[in-house]
Amino acid sequence: MKALANSYLQDGQKHQILTFALEEVNQNADVKGFVNPPDGILRLGDIVLCWPLVLEEASRDEMLVDEKVCELVNHGVEHLFGRDHE
Questions:
Q1: In 30-64, which residue ranges form alpha helices assigned H by DSSP?
Q2: Nearest residue to 19 (alpha-carbon basis) of 60, 82, 80, 69
Q3: Among the listed residues 44, 54, 50, 56, the one whose alpha carbon sits nearest the alpha carbon of residue 80
Q4: Which are the contacts of 33, defined by CB distance < 8 A and separation ≥ 6?
Q5: Which of 45, 47, 52 is nearest to 72 (CA)?
Q6: What are the CA-CA distances from residue 9 to residues 1, 4, 27, 45, 75 (Å)?
Q7: Which of 22, 27, 55, 61 is the most exposed place for a label (fewest CB within 10 A)?
Q8: Higher-confidence residue: 23 or 35?
Q9: Backbone φ, ψ for residue 75 (5° rounding)
Q10: For residue 54, what are the contacts with CB-CB under 8 A and spacing of at least 6?
Q11: CATH class of the domain at 2-80
């Protein structure tokens, strides 16, 4: 996770989750959209969780690990849909 964060964010922060949208860009109009492959399955992108931080946060928040994973994956999907923290 540290290597991914350093490569893509260069912010020196710990991240429990990173998302990478799988988008196609129209070079003529700068239009972005999700990749629609021939098999018809919409692929939004990737969600990467840092397992040690997931365990640490679940313990701190007194949650089951499964619940914390679900919370973080939902958060990641929101990011893939383009919703930010602000």
A1: 51-60
A2: 80
A3: 44
A4: 23, 24, 26
A5: 47
A6: 11, 8, 24, 17, 18
A7: 27
A8: 23
A9: -60, -45
A10: 16, 65, 68, 69, 72
A11: alpha beta
Determine the pLDDT at residue 32. Answer: 62
Q: What is the residue-averaged pLDDT of the chain?
A: 84
pLDDT given for residue 33 in this prediction? 65
Residue bearing the bigger pLDDT, 43 or 27: 43
76 band by pLDDT with thresholds 50, 70 and 90: very high
CB atoms within 10 A of CB 9: 11
Q: What is the CA radius of gyration of the chain?
A: 15
SS3 53: helix
Which tokens belong to 46? 């990737």
- CA–CA dist 14, 3 (Å, integer): 11
Place of tokens 């129209």: 26
Residue 31: is its pLDDT beyond 60? no
